[in-house]
TrEMBL record:
CDD domains: HDc (cd00077). This is Metal dependent phosphohydrolase. InterPro entries: HD/PDEase_dom, HD_domain. PANTHER family: CYANAMIDE HYDRATASE DDI2-RELATED. It comes from the Eukaryota. Gene3D superfamilies: Hypothetical protein af1432. SUPFAM superfamilies: HD-domain/PDEase-like.
Length: 248
């Protein structure tokens, strides 16, 4: 690793990120399209993923694809792009991020070694990063991307994946949080306002119900009403009854 690397080796925990041209380019890419707070969150997530890779038991003899894990975690929040014209109107932010990262790989000459399977794993790692009921049961690279990202929310309190106070502090000092808690709420509520239909069936909608469309309660009653009306018990379950009645 060169002395001018954007990914310093952390001496206390002894971890570093693969300083490959592709990973460097990925970092420059997210700097163009996301906020400095988001950039630091993505880098911290990559460090946490590498740190926690020591705790993952693997039955497979295949070596862990660390570059894939780090690339995925660094690119995982492209769906939080500050330029909203880059985002879809009908996809969850995780899918936006996965699609944007895949498009990037398909155009980048540095990704020549990325075959279809490797790109699909990357897409899964980003698209499923906020859905533990899927990600925890996928390939090690997908699992590690998920827990690395979640570790940046939980820190030493991460259930099931011990992180010491010293390890957490070292990563956060290298890449400060820069008001991450406040910006996260703004982003979640902003998604509820920008494309609410993509939030009704997942955790993002919980923020609209609790905090409204601006983080201060504005519009939360109307948002909650629409979300409830489009929930599974009000749409999917009645559809079963209507179908069975027609068949009968």
């Amino acid at each position: 690793m060169s002395s001018d690397s954007p990914f310093p080796k952390l001496p206390k925990s002894g971890i570093s990120l693969p300083d490959t041209p592709l990973v460097r380019d990925a970092l420059e890419h997210i700097k163009k399209f996301t906020s400095p707070t988001t950039v630091n969150h993505c880098i911290r997530s990559a460090y946490f993923a590498v740190l926690l890779s020591r705790q993952i038991s693997r039955s497979s003899t295949d070596p862990l694809d660390v570059e894939l894990v780090v690339f995925s975690t660094i690119m995982h929040d492209l769906g939080w792009a500050t330029d909203k014209t880059l985002l879809s109107k009908d996809k969850r932010f995780e899918v936006d991020g996965a699609d944007m990262a895949r498009n990037y790989l398909e155009k980048d000459k540095l990704a020549e070694g990325w075959n279809k399977h490797r790109i699909q794993l990357m897409w899964d790692a980003i698209a499923l990063h906020a859905t533990p009921s899927f990600a925890l049961h996928k390939e090690p690279e997908v699992l590690l991307a998920h827990i690395g990202i979640m570790a940046d929310f939980w820190g030493p309190n991460f259930p099931g994946f011990p992180i010491t106070i010293e390890e957490n502090q070292e990563i956060v000092e290298a890449f400060p949080r820069l008001g991450f808690k406040e910006q996260f709420l703004d982003i979640m509520c902003g998604l509820c306002a920008l494309k609410p239909e993509t939030t009704y069936d997942n955790f993002v909608g919980d923020y609209g119900v609790e905090y409204g469309l601006d983080g201060k309660g504005t519009g939360k009653e109307e948002f909650t009403r629409k979300r409830t009306a489009l929930s599974s018990p009000h749409i999917f379950y009645p559809a079963i009854g209507a179908y069975e009645q027609k068949e009968g």
